[in-house]
Amino acid sequence: MALIAPSILAADFANLQRDCEMVNQSEADWFHIDVMDGVFVPNISFGMPVISAINRHATKTMDVHLMIVQPERYINDFKAIGADILTVHYEASPHLHRTLQAITDADMKAGVALNPHTPVSLLKDVIQDIDLVCLMSVNPGFGGQKFIEKTYDKVRELKAMIVEANCSTLIEIDGGVGSGNAQKLIEAGADVLVAGSFVFKSENPTQTISDLKKA
Ligand code: DX5
Ligand code: ZN
């Protein structure tokens, strides 16, 4: 059974409290919160005030995915507004080891996200310092895109690396996740499924979360 992390990017921003409460009352495990800066990705989502507002209502783990350049500049700010897990992109972090250390020192779980073109093998020397690897199964920047099939191979390769290193890093899949691929992803070794459109655009989001939980 995987952890389910509905992505707030697909929520109704004019009804954020309602959507946060739906997630609280559902079988979801985490809130997935996407921060985009218009530089690292060609889109801008939301920033600190909105995340603070989510934190006032969310009763579950806040999993914050930074799609921003120089993420190391804001580590303490994200801690202050309620992030429990802070994920930075490999491609945005020339000093990844130092950044992971700073996230851990700030008392958050440290995550690394990989774009679809970035090989899993690049994490080999740092895997024991990572609490969560977020495999992007779409190109980051937008919700509602098509799942990239190559992701299954990356999950298997990453799982083998984690087992080999004897660590407990979680594998999270982000982008295009739904009932059509959830089970296969879990079989390949995924621990956390992020789902945006599939949950929030469905007729009954609570039920959709429950169905994903059973995958
Ligand atoms: C994409 C974001 C995802 C997005 C997923 O850049 O990182 O978290 O919200 O949305 P869906 O599930 O609609 O692909
Ligand atoms: Zn995300």
Provide structural commentary.
The protein has 215 residues and is an alpha/beta fold. The chain has one domain (3-213): Aldolase class I (TIM Barrel, Alpha-Beta Barrel). Helices cover 33% and strands 20% of the residues. It is built from eight helices and eight strands; from the N terminus they run βαβαβαβαββαβαβαα. The chain has helices spanning 16-25, 48-57, 75-80, 96-105, 151-165, 182-188, 197-200, 205-213, and strands at residues 3-6, 30-36, 61-67, 85-89, 109-114, 132-136, 170-174, 192-195. An eight-stranded parallel sheet has the order 1-8-7-6-5-4-3-2. Helix 5 (151-165) links the parallel strand 6 (132-136) and strand 7. The longest helix is centred in the last third of the chain and has 15 residues, at 151-165. The relative contact order is 0.17. The model has no long low-confidence stretch (mean pLDDT 98). Zinc ion (ZN) binds next to strand 2.
Annotated CATH architecture: Alpha-Beta Barrel
Q: How much is the average pLDDT?
A: 98
* Sequence of strands across the biggest β-sheet: 1-8-7-6-5-4-3-2
Strand content: 15-25%
The CATH superfamily is known as Aldolase class I
Order of helices and strands: EHEHEHEHEEHEHEHH
Number of domains: 1
Alpha carbon gap, first and last residue: 7 Å
Structural class: alpha/beta
List all distinct small molecules, including ions and cofactors, that are bound in this structure. D-xylitol-5-phosphate, zinc ion
The beta-strand count equals 8
- Tell me the number of helical segments per DSSP (H or I, 4 or more residues long): 8
Query: Major β-sheet, in short?
Result: 8 strands, parallel
